[in-house]
Design a protein that fits this description.
Blueprint (H helix, E strand, L loop, with lengths): L1 H23 L14 H11 L2 H19 L2 H24 L4 H24 L8 H26 L5
């Protein structure tokens, strides 16, 4: 039990480091709020190494801590919406056993953006903002693919050491 808690602490630290690195990268696609999603590598790995509860715990803690350190209340709200919807969808897809880690990650990237755009529509009370979603869909697909490829490679190389 102690070993597992310590490893989850390491995963949380890695996720916070990824959040910090991402906050330093001047990455702009022309769509407000679009990011690389580096922390999703950690979430996908946790989902495959341990399961939903552990991925949820680390993801939730990372969103709160990163929001207080690098963001604000709105960034926490948007991240929670995207992160929780994304994790829910990735968990369902993983449990079916029909999808490869890369496809799960792509769907996670897309639904993360969907969760955020839905919250944005409610917060700003403007439903036309959904017009951004096609761009966010493509961005989520591309970043989900890249994150999935990295996560798959890390998982393949480390699955013998972590459990």
């Amino acid at each position: 039990m102690r070993k597992k808690v310590a490893l989850l602490g390491v995963f949380l630290a890695l996720a916070l480091i990824c959040s910090y690195i991402e906050s330093l990268i001047p990455f702009y696609f022309g769509v407000p709020g679009m990011k690389l999603g580096l922390t999703n590598i950690v979430v996908v790995l946790l989902l495959y190494f341990y399961g939903t509860k552990e991925a949820l715990a680390v993801s939730f803690m990372r969103i709160l801590l990163a929001g207080f350190m690098f963001g604000n209340a709105f960034s926490i709200l948007y991240s929670l919406a995207g992160g929780l919807l994304s994790l829910f969808v990735m968990t369902l897809l993983k449990k079916t056993g029909w999808f490869h880690m890369i496809a799960v990650s792509i769907c996670g990237g897309i639904t993360h953006n969907l969760g955020q755009i839905l919250v944005a529509m409610v917060v700003v009370k403007n439903y036309y903002i959904f017009g951004y979603f096609p761009f966010l869909f493509v961005g989520g697909w591309i970043t989900g693919l890249l994150i999935g490829l990295l996560a798959q490679e890390i998982y393949t190389r480390t699955k013998h050491f972590i459990r």
